[in-house]
Write a structure and sequence with these properties.
By secondary structure, the chain is α/β, with parallel strands linked by helices. It has one domain: 3-Layer(aba) Sandwich (Uracil-DNA Glycosylase, subunit E), CATH 3.40.470. Helix content is about 35%, strand content about 10%. The protein is built from nine helices and six strands. The strands form two sheets. It has a four-stranded parallel β-sheet, sandwiched between helices. It has a two-stranded antiparallel sheet with strand order 1-4. Helix 7 crosses helix 8. The chain starts with a helix and ends in a 6-residue tail after the last helix.
């Protein structure tokens, strides 16, 4: 069950932010922000439970994305409809059952937090005509690694031990969507999937200049090619 899976994410390694159970006391808009993020993740996963065809697994949550939405590679600007005009990405592409909510303070980012990876990922899905409900986004490390001493609005590469702690949750996530193709977004999550013995396809991470190749690989995936 999706709710049981989300509950299993509660225990968090030290040095990682858990958006579904931790409060970001400096940057959260409302006291019940973790509950909002937890609910949004539940809606996102549940609405794809019986139909997902592709599981895109990246490295870890980022502060501009899942930290405030609760959903991997998904920013508040997408949820709030501010990516619709330029990229064609609508809030209802993420989930339909309820109205999406922001959890970051507007004085941090007036239109909501915006993450480059999320913008490229969702924009490419729409551009290539892939139904967003055929796709589930997740991370090998489900929580947000931040830089100690510099605050929660930072990102860092997960440590080897943190990648190891994420394996159990990654395995459990995959069981929610049995039969779907698994796509590793970047090298680190490829290592996790290999360690679990999961058959997968590797694609270029869209950030840091990787967007053109990622879009080409996504097009091949849409066309049924596994040699990407």
């Amino acid at each position: 069950m999706v709710s049981t899976f989300i509950e299993s994410l509660k225990r968090t390694p030290r040095g990682l932010f858990n958006p579904w159970y931790h409060k970001d006391r400096k940057n959260d808009l409302v006291p019940n922000a973790p509950e909002i993020r937890r609910r949004q993740l539940e809606l996102y996963l549940t609405e794809r439970k019986e139909r997902a065809r592709f599981l895109f697994i990246a490295e870890a949550l980022g502060y501009q994305g899942g930290h405030f939405t609760g959903i991997a590679m998904t920013s508040e600007r997408i949820l709030l409809g501010h990516q619709q005009e330029k990229y064609g990405v609508k809030p209802e592409h993420v989930f339909r059952s309820e109205q999406p909510l922001r959890t970051s303070r507007p004085d941090i980012a007036e239109l909501g937090m915006s993450e480059p990876t999320a913008t490229i990922m969702w924009g490419a899905l729409i551009e290539e005509g892939i139904d967003p409900y055929d796709v589930v986004l997740w991370n090998a490390v489900p929580w947000h690694p931040y830089v100690k001493g510099e605050g929660l609005l930072t990102n860092r590469t997960p440590l080897a031990g943190e990648m190891e702690r994420g394996l159990k949750h990654l395995r459990n996530f995959l069981t929610l969507f049995e039969g779907a193709s698994v796509i590793a977004v970047g090298r680190k999550c490829e290592q996790s999937l290999t360690e679990l013995g999961v058959e997968h396809i590797g694609v270029r991470h869209p950030a840091n200049g990787g967007a053109p190749k990622f879009r080409r690989q996504l097009r091949d995936l849409r066309n049924g090619s596994t040699a990407i």
